[in-house]
C-alpha cells in the first residue's frame, strides 16, 4: 500500500529558510500536497504540485518534486514565528480522492 | 461560509459506551471522509464516501460505522468505545475530481475513552 514518511521535528531561527522533506512510495500518485496544522485546529491546504511538475513556487513557499526518487520537499523562505505548526505532506493516488498522509513534521521557529 | 462543521469539539466516554461524531458540510461536496490523528502517525483514513448512499472502508475501519443518507452529513459511530479509540478525529470533504481538488477539514473532535 501507499506509505508517506516525514521527519518528526525541525527547529529553525526566525528569518532563516526551513526545508521539510517527505518521501512516498506510490509511483502512481497524481497530486502531492502540503497541509499546515496550527495548534487545536484542522488542516489547511498550503500548496500542491501535480506529479508531472518538478517545482512550484508560491510567494514564500517552494515545492520541489523528484519523482524518480519519490521525494517531495517544502521550502519556506524567511520563516516567521507564525510558521510554527505541524506540516503534513500527502499524496493522492491515481484513482479516487483518497489522501495518504505522512506523520507530520513539527516546525518550531525560534526568535 | 460554514465549510465543514464537526460536533462535539471534545468528548469523554467510558469504555463500552457508544456515541456519534457529527460532520456536516455546506459546499455540496460529493466526497467525505473521516480520519483519526495520533501523535507521529499522521492522519489515518477510517471510512470514506464518494456520494450519498455509498460508503467504504479506509485504513483503520474496525470499531467504527458510517452512513451517508444525505450529501451534507457523514456521521461516524462508535458502537462500543475502547481506550484505543482515544484520538483526535477529523472530517474532510472535497469535490470528486480526477484533477486537483482541495480537501477541507473540520476543526476536529478530541475524544478520550477512559
What does this protein structure show overall?
The complex is a heterodimer of chains A (111) and B (114). By secondary structure, chain A is mostly beta strands. Helices cover 0% and strands 57% of the residues of chain A. In chain A, strands 2, 4, 5, 9, 10 and 11 form a six-stranded mixed sheet that branches. Chain A has a five-stranded antiparallel sheet with strand order 1-3-8-7-6, with no helix packed on it. Chain A starts with a strand and ends with a strand. Chain B is globular. The interface between A and B is medium-sized, with 24 and 28 residues.
Topology, element by element:
The complex is a heterodimer of chains A (111) and B (114).
Chain A lengths: L3 E3 L2 E5 L4 E7 L6 E7 L5 E8 L4 E4 L2 E6 L4 E6 L8 E8 L6 E3 L3 E6 L1
Parallel strand pairs in A: 2-11
Antiparallel strand pairs in A: 1-3, 3-8, 4-5, 4-9, 6-7, 7-8, 9-10, 9-11
Chain B lengths: L3 E4 L2 E4 L5 E7 L5 E7 L5 E9 L2 E4 L6 E3 L9 E3 L8 E8 L9 E2 L3 E5 L1
Parallel strand pairs in B: 2-11
Antiparallel strand pairs in B: 1-3, 3-8, 4-5, 4-9, 5-6, 7-8, 9-10, 9-11
Averaging pLDDT over every residue of chain B, what do you get?
94
C-alpha end-to-end distance of chain A: 41 Å
Biggest sheet features of chain A: 6 strands, mixed
Give the topology string of chain B: H per helix, E per strand: EEEEEEEEEEE
**Secondary-structure element string of chain A:** EEEEEEEEEEE
Beta-strand level of the residues of chain B, as a percent range? over 45%
- Number of helical segments with 4 or more residues of chain B: 0
What does the main sheet of chain B amount to?
7 strands, mixed
Give start-end ranges of low-pLDDT stretches of chain A: none
SS field, number of helical segments of chain A: 0
Task: List the chains of the largest interface with their residue counts.
Answer: A-B, 24 and 28 residues
Structural class of chain B: mainly beta
Number of strands of chain A: 11
| Secondary structure tally: strands of chain B | 11
DSSP strand (E) fraction of chain A? over 45%
Mean pLDDT across all amino acids of chain A = 93
Shape of chain B: globular
Report the oligomer: heterodimer
Specify the structural class of chain A.
mainly beta
Amino acid at each position: 500500500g501507499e506509505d508517506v514518511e516525514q521527519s518528526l521535528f525541525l527547529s529553525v531561527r526566525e528569518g532563516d529558510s526551513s526545508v521539510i522533506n517527505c518521501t512516498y512510495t506510490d509511483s502512481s500518485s497524481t497530486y502531492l500536497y502540503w497541509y499546515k496544522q496550527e495548534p487545536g485546529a484542522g488542516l489547511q491546504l498550503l500548496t500542491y504540485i501535480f506529479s508531472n511538475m518538478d517545482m512550484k513556487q508560491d510567494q514564500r513557499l517552494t515545492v520541489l518534486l523528484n519523482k524518480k526518487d519519490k521525494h517531495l520537499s517544502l521550502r519556506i523562505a524567511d520563516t516567521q514565528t507564525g510558521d510554527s505548526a505541524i506540516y503534513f505532506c500527502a499524496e493522492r493516488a491515481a484513482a479516487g480522492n483518497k489522501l495518504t498522509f505522512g506523520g507530520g513534521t513539527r516546525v518550531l521557529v525560534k526568535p | 461560509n460554514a465549510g465543514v462543521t464537526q460536533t462535539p469539539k471534545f468528548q469523554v466516554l467510558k469504555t463500552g459506551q457508544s456515541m456519534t461524531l457529527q460532520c456536516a458540510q455546506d459546499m455540496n461536496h460529493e466526497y467525505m471522509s473521516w480520519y483519526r490523528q495520533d501523535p507521529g502517525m499522521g492522519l489515518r483514513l477510517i471510512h470514506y464516501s464518494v456520494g450519498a448512499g455509498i460508503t467504504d472502508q479506509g485504513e483503520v475501519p474496525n470499531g467504527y460505522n458510517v452512513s451517508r443518507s444525505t450529501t451534507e452529513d457523514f456521521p461516524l459511530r462508535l458502537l462500543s468505545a475502547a481506550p484505543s479509540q482515544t484520538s483526535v478525529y477529523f472530517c474532510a470533504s472535497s469535490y470528486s475530481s480526477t484533477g486537483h481538488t482541495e480537501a477541507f477539514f473540520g476543526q476536529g473532535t478530541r475524544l478520550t475513552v477512559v
